[in-house]
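Render Hydrogenase nickel incorporation protein HypB in 3D.
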Amino acid sequence: MPMCRTVDLRQAVLARNDDSARELRAALAARGTVAVNLLSSPGSGKTALLEAELGLARERGVPVAALTADLATENDALRLARSGAPVKQVLTDGLCHLEAVMLAKHLDGWLPEDTRLLFVENVGNLVCPASYDLGESLRVVLASVTEGEDKPLKYPTAFGLANLVVVTKADLAAAAEFDEAAFLAAVARVNPGVEVVFTSARTGQGAGLLLDRALAVLDGARPHRPVMAAAAPDHGHGHGHGGHHHGPVAVEDLA
């Protein structure tokens, strides 16, 4: 019985979060803003990549902002602010993920009215954040070449719900003996058809690809709809990424 109550409580929390996410998505759509949710493990290099993409957005004249979440310190916000874009740091006080109501609260009164792209750098974690819709229109999961080719199989919910997969630190692929074919095969097993792009903040490889994909969604393109999310109802507007699956994928489902 305690296990049943725990599961019921978790489902109730996720259901409330989904309601908040729908409200936030609608509010952002009404003002012409697309939110991009960035998920990865700690140390993936997503802050370095995001800093570069924010700089490119500013160069192109795209009104862009970023909100970054961490358990402690404002280090990432200070790095991202070097791009010249409006940046806000959120400290989660030990919580391992952002939730839609938290995001809405932090955006209220801060997000510049003309913002067209909002990048949300989630807490470095591929477990908890995977289950929480933030009202984003594009969910991006990042993995560095140093993390191993089987990362998508170890974290199938995170990669299985991605609209886009970004590989970072591509300049280290040879040194890390990264098996690109094995990684792509692993991604395809949990999320058939999702686009995978390779980037390096150090060399500039893939510069602007993340920004281009976000701008395409802003212009009305529908992002990739993951098979894992297909069973869930759509969010109801053109930029929705197709809902969330709240349960883990069983190992046998990946065989």
